[in-house]
């Protein structure tokens, strides 16, 4: 009998699977749509539904449970504020899997997993560290600082 064999191993160790799904959960909550392979998307669907259901309770115990699963404070805040209001009257089925063809390198079937009633402005938001560009018009002393530091280095070598 196959009792308790309900999930795919995805050719990974249990620690790797746990970390991968935690990262995918955080990305899905942040961007509300991600692209991945079909088996990963199907496994992630059940996990995200359970996480959103916990977030809808909005109690301290629920927040602590979410933080232990996600390890990301901004994801927990978004779950207990934004997504709580959005899915308040929905009983389940918070995300969908849309197949999107095959990956170029290994021909693996890919799919988009997205939250139902998603915010289209959330995609690509806060995608990583961004370097700020310094405008020379706003800060004319920035050129002087750079040239001064070069001159100091040149004089120190002599």
Describe this structure in words.
By secondary structure, the protein is of the alpha+beta class. It has a single domain (about 15-130), classed as 50s Ribosomal Protein L17, Chain: A. It contains 5 helices and 3 strands, in the order αβαααββα. The protein has helices at about 15-30, 40-55, 60-70, 75-85, 140-155, and strands at about 35, 95-100, 110-115. A hairpin with a 6-residue loop joins β2 and β3 (about 110-115). It is globular. The model is unreliable at about 145-150 (pLDDT under 50).
Question: What distinguishing features does this structure have?
Answer:
single chain, alpha+beta, 50s Ribosomal Protein L17, Chain: A, 13% strand
Rg, rounded, reads 23 Å
Based on the coordinates given, report the CATH architecture: Alpha-Beta Complex
Instruction: Write the H/E string, N to C.
Output: HEHHHEEH
Spatial gap, N to C terminus: 80 Å
CATH level 4 superfamily: Ribosomal protein L17
What is the makeup of the main sheet? 3 strands, antiparallel
Number of contiguous helices: 5
Shape designation: globular
Task: Kindly summarize this structure in a few lines.
49% of the residues lie in helices and 13% in strands. The protein contains 5 helices and 3 strands.
Give the helices and strands, then pairings.
Elements: H1 14-31, E1 33-37, H2 38-55, H3 60-70, H4 73-86, E2 95-102, E3 109-115, H5 141-157
Antiparallel strand pairs: 1-3, 2-3
Helix pairs in contact: 3-4
């Amino acid at each position: 009998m196959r009792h308790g064999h309900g999930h795919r191993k995805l050719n990974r160790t249990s620690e790797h699977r746990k970390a991968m799904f935690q990262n995918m959960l955080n990305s899905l909550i942040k961007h509300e749509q991600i692209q991945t392979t079909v088996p990963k998307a199907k496994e992630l669907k059940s996990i995200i539904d359970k996480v959103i259901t916990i977030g809808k309770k909005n109690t301290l115990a629920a927040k602590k449970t979410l933080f232990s699963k996600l390890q990301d404070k901004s994801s927990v805040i978004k779950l207990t504020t934004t997504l709580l209001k959005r899915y308040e009257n929905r009983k389940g089925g918070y995300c969908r899997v849309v197949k999107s063809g095959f990956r170029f390198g290994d021909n693996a079937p890919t799919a988009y997993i997205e939250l139902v009633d998603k915010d289209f402005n959330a995609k690509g938001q806060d995608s990583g560290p961004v370097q700020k560009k310094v405008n020379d018009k706003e800060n004319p002393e920035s050129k002087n600082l750079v040239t001064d530091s070069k001159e100091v280095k040149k004089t120190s070598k002599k």
